[in-house]
Amino acid sequence: MIAFITINIDPVIFHIGAFSLRWYSLIMALGVIVGSFIFAAQLRRKGIESGQVTAMLMVVVPSAIVGARLFSVLDNWGHYSHDLVAIVKPPYVGLAIYGVLTGGLAALAIYCRVRKLPVLRVLDCLALAIPVGQIIGRFANIINGDTWGSPTRLPWGFVYTNPHALLPANLLGVPTHPTPVYEQLWLVIMVTVLWYAVPRLKTDGMAILLYLGLYSFGRFFISFYRVNNILLLGLREAQLVALIVLVALVPVAILLRRRSMAVTQARSQSRPRSRRG
Predict the structure, then answer these.
(1) Whether the predicted model's global pTM rises above the 0.70 cut
(2) Is residue 267 packed enough to be buried (19+ CB in 10 Å), middle (13-18) or exposed (0-12)?
(3) Which helix H or strand E contains 207, and what residues bound it?
(4) What would the 3-class secondary structure string for 107-158 be?
(5) Splitting the chain (277 residues) into consecutive groups of 10 residues, what average pLDDT does each group show?
(6) Residue extents of the structural domains in the chain
(7) Is 44 within 8 Å of 53 (Cβ atoms)?
């Protein structure tokens, strides 16, 4: 008999009247805090004043949540189209990571423009912070059951038994692929690669592009084990977005590299040459 991994944790820690504290909120907050410390450390390493981190987070976090909700709504439009009010109703769980990245990175870029900070250099400081925060945040998904995988007979399959778990009722008690764990393992590999590569990347913007490329590559394959809506060519929303990101990164990386080389060349030519006596 196969011994699966049983998860029987109530997503809600406690209730006080209408208020409820969820593991999701607690763990996600921890992920943001840890990621913020890493972000601040990377800013200092690049010579950027890290004291602005709080102001940045006040802009980035709400924008990331809005972006994540919009992506989640689009991916589950069949449900929300019949209940539009549910779009803005809690609980805000199962938020789409590509929405987080789109909303958060766009907001940070705008903030940097307004504050006259080097946009690409600041975005690069997130290359390590984001995946570490994701590793922590996926524990919230493990408890919730809101990023469930397809049924499996593998011995590491997750079996959710708590009636408050957020996967479909027909999957309660059914072994499913632990896709949050698959993603955590890939993210650990990513952090290892980024830890080595980021200090060695001299072109601004390359670090955040490397993160986006690595994550999209892994997410494309992990999504085959997710139970999400098929949108096109047998692929899910996250897979289509991953392909778009991977294709777009190539010309962007080439453009950044060429621009960096042009700036370096212009600076070298503008330096006064020493005269020989």
Answers:
(1) yes
(2) exposed
(3) helix 206-222
(4) HHHHHHHHHCCCHHHHHHCCCCHHHHHHHHHHHHHHHHCCCCECECCCCCCE
(5) 86 86 92 93 87 86 84 64 59 68 92 93 95 95 91 94 91 94 97 95 94 96 86 83 94 91 74 54
(6) 16-263
(7) no
